[in-house]
Here is the input.
Amino acid sequence: MPLTKKRIGIVCPYGWDTPGGVRSHIDDLAQYLIAQGHHVSVLAPAIDDSTLPDYVTSAGRPIAIPYNGAVARVLFGPIAFNRVKQWISAGEFDLLHLHEPAIPSISLLACWAAEGPMVGTFHAAANRQRVAFAVTPFLEPVIEKLSARIAVSEAARETLQIHLDTDAIVVPNGIYAKRFDHAVIDSRWTGNTIGFIGRFEEPRKGLEIIVAALPQMISTLPDVRVLVAGPGDSEAFLKDVEPSLHNRFTFLGRISEEEKANFMASVGVYVAPNTGGESFGIILAEALAAGASVVASDIPAFDSLLAHGQFGTLFSSEDSHDLARKIVALLTNTESRVDKAKKRRDYAQNFDWDVVAEKIYDVYEMAMVGRSGVTLSSDTRAWNKFIGRRS
Amino acid sequence: MTRYLILVIVIALFGWYLSFSATRLDRLHHRVETSWANLDGLLQRRAAVAIEIARSEISDPASSMLLTFAAHQARDANLRNRSQAETGLSGALAILLENAEGVTTSNEQELINELRDLTEKIKMAISMHVESVNRTHMVRNKWVFKTFRLAGHAPEPIVYEFEGDVL
Here is the structure.
């Protein structure tokens, strides 16, 4: 793909040790670019320096702050700022790629400190009421420095338009679609089954809504079962569930990537009942790649991912009656479910890393036109020359 | 005494703010130049591909003429007429592509693929450019920038209207 190898610096705002959508997106992207022959360095907060892959540099220990309905592990402050500046000046990058630069994090610090070709990716899709972006007058001059902005979904793009009054190019998050091509149907998981993957103890993942919808589903589908994959304490979860429903649940714990593909391909219907805080919905894209029929809450991110219901069924978010109706309708109509599997698979190819990374690199190229490398802005400031300071 | 000190501090802070704002605007002007250079490069490449298509088997003599004319017009247009000329070329290419369903030779298919690729990139470049121009206009119109003429002699960036017209 690229004719010339570039030096690319990527900043991850969230702690590298904690699993998360943004973090794994950055990891996949970095590995893809390295495989293409580029030199990539990722700067991220990290608790344990010794376990980091060699392309990741630690910026220090992250601090846990509540943000967007979850706990975000980010980092800022003078020491972090110094590390960011050191990393920028030592890296001699052709381009910086900053993730989520509009939240208080090292991404914002890097955007403040650097001068030159910079691309920013915005993942969050926050509601208007949330005060996450309330510091606009302060942020504007910083965000303006980005040569190009990427939003991961139409929802994220809208958030950006509302809060920061700037437009972005939509490039979705990437999946490895090929992993799902060879998924094997596993008879343990087939039938009238409802699949769910995620940290089920977090309320915003919405497993409770499936629980609430169960009695209504059982009246028409007596053999309906719920299969839950993902880390969490299943016994603690079942304590709050009516005992007569316990035998409907199977907890699989954490599953491997291969098992995940088989799981998605086998279940009767895959459900994503998330109540919000979701920016893209990578798991839904993966379910589509496996050809699964999906039911998802109608939050903006899912609505745009499923093309307003074209590639999956949307239910009114947090409404368990509506969810039950939609699941029953899908499970009782096997033919239409199977018919559309190929259409869904084809659509999911749009999210394959081969397509997505190429698009991101196109944006990089556009940002680099006619500019030579990233420098520290403090080096070029006029008054520093006056007082003879060099940083 | 303290009153003068406060006054001096306020003036110094304001001076810093002006310098900061001037840098900010300068950076924006620079961004407009870059995004335009990028878009211009892509459009030039598209015109070249269009001429190649006009010479190939894909187009009949009539559309070849139309295409060659549109491509040359787009290349020669000055800054202000550029948007209109490029829209003309987009239209000519769109007509041709609609009728190019039956293309089978690999050479021609390659040309069409290249055009599709360029179209995607041009869409992105347009949105980047429009965004940087809008942003620059917005900042230039703020009172501090107007009152203190922070834009200096930098010309007002031209608004292009090809948003969404590409194929």
